Amino acid sequence: MKIYHVPCLQDSYSYLMLDESTKEGAVVDPVEPEKVLQAANSHGVNLKLVLATHHHWDHARGNEKIKQLVPGIRVCGGSIDNIMGCTDKVENGDKVSLGADINILSLHTPCHTKGHISYYVTSKDEEQPAVFTGDTLFIAGCGKFFEGTAEQMYQSLYVTLATLPKRTRVYCGHEYAVRNLKFALTIEPHNLRIQQKLTWAQNQQQAGQPTIPSTIEEEMETNPFMRVALPAIQEKLGCKSPVEALRELRKLKDKWKE
Fold first, then answer.
1. Under CATH, which architecture does the 2-255 domain have?
2. Catalytic residue numbers?
3. What mean pLDDT comes out for the span 17-29?
4. For a disulfide at 104, which of 7, 14, 96, 116, Cβ 3.0-4.6 Å?
């Protein structure tokens, strides 16, 4: 399994996923279809599938166009998220196969939108798995609570995503790592892992390179939204539970300026 970044808009990514034995591929959130097809052609990817994480325009607006450009392509999306161009509605736990070796598990991760889906991808050769988290889990951050609650985001982050294998690669929808890590340091100024990752992310940014993917393990070490179960963070936020701390942390991030 190979995964390729396709930079889109100002700070977004679509992702191409390739089953190397069959050359069949999928694209996650093809917001700029022409760019996606150019990348697919350059990497020899025969597109069969769109994996739509949620309905927001900066993720889903290219679905109808890519259906025109690639006749017969299937568009998977959350059953309650009203995805543009959706042909295959998926629920939590639904499975889709790609090519000969790739298995895709749909995970309902609501809050940013009610029907947001993350896609957990494994291959038969047991290489490092991946999860495409859209706007639920970012590097060192999480999505805004547009359509849901702190309770839902806690379930999405801690119960669904944090329990994936620690080595799982995290591919999120936007390039927000530097800003998110700067905010993370305001919550845990003495966290060496955050300090180190911020320096690395700034170097990546200056070199014009992506900071994605991360891993579930890295997020558990550096992402304050994945660390609200820690008593020290709850105490700093003046909270007595992880859900309360998550709610307060999101409020702080929404108001925070560098």
1. 4-Layer Sandwich (3.60)
2. 54, 56, 58-59, 112, 135, 174
3. 96
4. 96
